[in-house]
Design goal:
- The complex is a heterodimer of chains A (269) and B (350).
- Chain A is an all-alpha fold.
- Chain A has helices at 9-36, 53-60, 62-95, 101-107, 110-113, 116-130, 136-160, 165-172, 177-205, 209-214, 221-231, 236-258, 262-268.
- In chain A, helix 7 (136-160) crosses helix 9 and helix 8 (165-172) packs antiparallel against helix 9 (177-205).
- In chain B, strand 9 (202-207) and strand 10 form a beta hairpin.
- The radius of gyration of chain B is 24 Å and the shape is globular.
- Classes of the chains: A mainly alpha (269), B alpha+beta (350).
């Protein structure tokens, strides 16, 4: 027979406060989604009727589509750069026995701490000399600075829990370094690598401040959204937001699916 | 293949982890490095494996100087304390790894992996992942992976540390049989003296970066060259006495005549617990004294007694028990303790 569970005030308080926080986080979505399918031509809640017109307008407007493509390009390049630089950097920060490497490890998070405005102004000065202003790849390079800490933190955490004896074992069994990294180390870091890559992608895809300074006439999606709000408020912005939320949600979903990687997928295989 | 370690020194800052180690392992021999933690045995193993480069000295494998060769060029099979299996590969993929690194043809890899798994009786487990196996099974996979490519030397780094007693004993014998069958030259690292006695052709006892003594288990047990070896290997009574005209005066036991020539002065006598006779059995012993039982430990097939000798030191005695034996004496009882001088080993000074 089961013992009856006693009602606990503590558990009740915990559950209700968690519920409130969850509601607080979710409410914007509950507003944005209905507005995106509104029949009204201005932001009105609750919407008077249903219509796909704002999605249609987004798809018909080459300005929106160009900005979307540019953002995807920039986010992809940013991901490639952040991973290409961040993974080797994580190895160095975790494995190096040089004095001061721990300080460097802390400093790797600096781009998150430095106000983005400051970073933007600094990069503006450098990029204008390099003629990178107004180019989508300029934005991608700037976003790489912001994405790098995510990669270093995630991959570094994965590396720290990795058993280095395995690399010694592989070396003893006849493997050279490139093959040890490729066959033994990286496959086990896969969850961290996938999470890091998606986070880098999202951090660039979502970023506004650097894009405002650096993208010029070739706008990224967040910049275009910002301009849209400034000039002509209509529910297109809600439709774009919903699409953006869906894309980011897809990234996060894929991360939790493959980011746990080694564990769940290999057992089922 | 024959291994020679010649004058190897390895310093970490001011500390010498290895202070000039010489060691020879014959072809097909099972040699154990036995020592407490911090004695340098792991550093020695890493030097042989190539993970450490010595400051001085040389490592020779089959006459070839491999002191500076990277680990992957040494062809040594190594089993780590925590096995170091690759968790993202199946058992068969793990065992195939060293063969793939040597770019053997596909059919040969399949055949040899199968052979190696049969050798450790895991042929049905090839498609499993390491985490789906028990500790003992993982250990055997690690062993199969270490021998599958026909290594020139097998290195075992405390491979049974994480296993429970029963499993450890079974695996010890299994490893020993496998090693004999494949005639693998083997260097085995442990801090467990019982394990060393069970498995080895010869044992090298290490302490503070030096090898104290090398020899077959029985010889080390009966005739330890230093006080440290006498104390570390098995249980021991080390009795101090003063020697005059071939007779040592030992407090609690009186005069003990010693065979052979020893310089006069203070001597240390090693008396194993099983050499001591108690009560009626001690009556005929040439050396005797009275002892009071301080503690009795029942061990099943034997019993251990700690006795305070009258006017002397505390000694440990171990007496065999048969099912019909009366219970060993209880604490507080006083009884005759004796031994025969032939069972005494004089531990060299130094």
């Amino acid at each position: 027979m089961r013992h009856p569970r006693r009602f606990s005030v503590g558990n009740f308080l915990l559950a209700s406060s968690a519920g409130l926080v969850f509601l607080f986080l979710m409410l914007p979505l509950l507003v944005v989604f209905p507005i995106s399918v509104s029949s009204a031509s201005y932001l009105q809640f609750p919407p008077p009727g249903f219509s796909w017109q704002w999605y249609q307008r987004y798809l018909d407007d080459p300005g929106w589509i160009d900005a979307t493509i540019r953002s995807v390009q920039a986010a992809t390049l940013c991901t490639v750069l952040a991973m290409g630089l961040g993974v080797p950097l994580s190895f160095f920060l975790v494995r190096s026995r040089l004095a001061g490497v721990r300080v460097l490890d802390r400093l790797a998070a600096a781009p998150i701490i430095v106000p983005t405005i400051i970073l933007s102004i600094a990069l503006y000065g450098v990029f204008s000399r390099l003629q990178l202003i107004g180019e989508w790849y300029g934005v991608a390079i700037a976003h790489t600075v912001l994405a790098l800490p995510f990669v270093v933190i995630l991959v570094g955490a994965g590396l720290r829990t990795f058993d280095e004896a395995q690399e010694q074992a592989a070396a003893g069994l006849g493997a050279a370094w490139p093959r040890i990294i490729w066959r033994v180390t990286l496959p086990q870091l896969r969850p961290s690598l996938i999470s890091a890559a998606f986070l880098a992608f999202i951090s660039s895809f979502d970023e506004l401040v650097l894009a405002m300074f650096l993208s010029g006439a070739s706008m990224t999606l967040p910049k275009k959204m910002f301009d849209n709000i400034m000039m002509e408020i209509d529910p297109t912005i809600a439709a774009v937001s919903v699409l953006q939320i869906l894309l980011v949600g897809l990234c996060l979903g894929l991360t939790s699916l493959f980011g746990r990687g080694a564990l769940t997928t290999t057992i089922t295989r | 293949m024959q291994l020679s370690v010649k004058g190897v020194v390895r310093r970490f800052g001011p500390v010498a982890a290895l202070g000039g180690v010489d060691l020879d392992v014959a072809e097909g021999e099972f040699l154990t490095i036995l020592g407490p933690s911090g004695s340098g045995k792991t550093t020695l193993l890493k030097t042989v494996a190539g993970f450490e480069i010595p400051d001085e000295g040389a490592v020779l494998l089959g006459g070839e100087d491999v002191t500076l060769s990277p680990p992957r060029r040494r062809d040594m099979g190594m089993v780590f304390q925590n096995y170091a299996l690759f968790p993202h590969m199946t058992v068969a993929q793990n065992v195939a790894f060293p063969l793939e690194m040597r770019r053997r043809p596909r059919e040969e890899i399949t055949r040899r992996v199968e052979e190696a798994l049969r050798l450790v009786e895991l042929q049905a487990f090839g498609e499993r992942l390491p985490r789906q196996l028990s500790g003992g099974q993982q250990q055997r996979v690690a062993l199969a992976r270490a021998v599958v490519f026909g290594p020139r030397l097998l290195l075992l780094d405390e491979p049974f540390g994480a296993l429970d007693r029963k499993l450890r004993e079974a695996l010890q014998l299994e490893v020993r049989r496998l090693q004999r069958r494949l005639r693998l030259t083997t260097l085995f690292i442990t801090h467990d003296q019982e394990e060393a006695l069970i498995m080895s052709d010869r044992i090298a006892v290490m302490e503070r970066g030096r090898i104290e003594q090398v020899g077959p288990p029985a010889e080390l047990y009966a005739r330890p060259a230093t006080r440290f070896v006498a104390d570390f290997l098995g249980e021991s009574n080390l009795l101090e006495g003063s020697l005059l005209d071939g007779v040592a005066q030992v407090p609690g036991f009186g005069g003990v005549p010693l065979a052979g020539a020893h310089p006069p002065g203070t001597v240390t006598l090693l008396l194993r617990p099983e050499a001591l006779r108690l009560a009626t059995e001690a009556e005929a012993a040439p050396c005797q004294g009275l002892g009071r039982v301080v503690e009795t430990i029942f061990l099943g097939l034997s019993a251990k007694l700690r006795l305070q000798m009258d006017g002397g030191a505390e000694v440990l005695a171990r007496i065999p028990l048969r099912p019909s034996s009366p219970p060993p004496a209880s604490e507080g009882a006083t009884m005759l303790v004796g031994f025969s001088p032939e069972d005494v080993h004089v531990v060299p000074r130094g």
